[in-house]
Design a protein that fits this description.
It contains two helices and no strands. The chain is mostly helical and 64 residues long. The chain is rod-shaped. It starts with a helix and ends in a 5-residue tail after the last helix.
Length: 64
């Protein structure tokens, strides 16, 4: 191994480490944006739909 080979290996390892870190940061960012709590969303949609249905039934009832 000559003296010229060592800096190239070190630079290559540094590039690989930086690329790995950037990939990990990107994956972490994606995980945060994709992590929706579907249970709470569906509960909110269900309550909202029930409220609309109740309002329509109340507005359309016949008065005695």
């Amino acid at each position: 191994m000559s003296d010229n080979d060592e800096p190239n290996e070190i630079l290559a390892a540094a590039r690989d480490a930086k690329a790995h870190e950037m990939g990990a940061n990107e994956a972490k960012r994606e995980r945060r944006t994709r992590n929706w709590n579907l249970g709470k969303i569906s509960l909110g949609v269900g309550i909202g739909s029930a409220a609309v249905a109740a309002a329509v039934l109340f507005a359309n009832r016949e008065k005695k």
